[in-house]
Write a sequence for this structure.
């Protein structure tokens, strides 16, 4: 079972690449041939059985974002749409305020079936995509930092410094520089220092080095993590926009080893056209 779970990500990727994608906020694209995946497959799977209990807490009273198990985002290939390719995606539709060049890039990625997606070449997917991709992750909370451990997506960890500040001189990176603090029961994370290589999601929303994210993590009960992110990137969008995802807890799951480059055979098939 665990081995099959670790393959879900690239299976979904290959399946989605077999059909063209379309989002509601971008009229004028070629007609979408329809979802390749049936509802309920992979990322749209129901929550595990059991009744949600109260939010577990640490000895200091803060919500425990971890525990014996792992979080599973499901599959949300388009962070601006509630349904994409027949599966649950983001929590709601967002009218993305593209700048002209950004919508052109987005449309090009849609029309070529995401053939240049960095993930297909074993490169990191960046933030916030980790919180929408179909890989389990765990959270470890410490007084001075919060560590995210990812099963897949080509980058196994992420560190958020608590009650800290960003360095004055930052070199652009895939993950950016993250500092956080708690507002009541919510972990609020401020992230800057990104490169322009990652995609915000599999659909192809672009980003620039001006990207600034504000993330909010709230464990609302024992089985649910609400994730909200505000995307402020004046290089690609005319104003900030916010999206969210509901992440489910999977009790007892342990993260598996995931090595993307090991025996990788998928990228050569990323041709950007639908076979006839």
């Amino acid at each position: 079972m665990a081995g099959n779970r670790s393959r879900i990500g690239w299976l979904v990727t290959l399946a989605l690449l077999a059909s063209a994608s379309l989002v509601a906020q971008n009229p004028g694209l070629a007609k979408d041939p329809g979802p390749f995946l049936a509802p309920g497959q992979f990322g749209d799977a129901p929550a595990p059985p059991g009744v949600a209990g109260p939010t577990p807490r640490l000895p200091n009273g803060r919500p425990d974002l971890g525990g014996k198990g792992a979080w599973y985002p499901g599959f949300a290939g388009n962070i601006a749409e509630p349904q994409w390719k027949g599966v649950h995606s983001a929590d709601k539709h967002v009218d993305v305020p593209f700048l002209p060049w950004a919508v052109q890039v987005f449309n090009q990625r849609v029309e070529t079936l995401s053939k240049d997606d960095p993930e297909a070449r074993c490169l990191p997917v960046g933030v916030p995509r980790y919180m929408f991709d179909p890989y389990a992750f765990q959270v470890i909370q410490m007084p001075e930092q919060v560590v995210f451990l990812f099963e897949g997506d080509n980058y196994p960890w992420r560190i958020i410094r608590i009650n800290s500040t960003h360095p004055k001189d930052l070199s652009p990176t895939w993950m950016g520089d993250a500092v956080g603090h708690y507002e009541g029961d919510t972990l609020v994370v401020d992230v800057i220092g990104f490169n322009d290589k990652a995609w915000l999601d599999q659909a192809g929303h672009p980003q620039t080095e001006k990207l600034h994210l504000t993330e909010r993590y709230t464990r609302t009960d024992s089985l649910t993590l609400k994730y909200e992110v505000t995307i402020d990137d004046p290089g690609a969008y005319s104003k900030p926009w916010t999206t969210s995802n509901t992440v489910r807890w999977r009790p007892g799951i342990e993260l598996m080893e995931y090595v993307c480059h090991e025996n990788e055979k998928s990228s050569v098939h990323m041709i950007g056209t639908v076979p006839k």
About this structure: Helices lie at 2-16, 100-111. The chain has a mean pLDDT of 82. The CA atoms of residues 22 and 117 lie 16 Å apart. The longest strand covers residues 241-251.
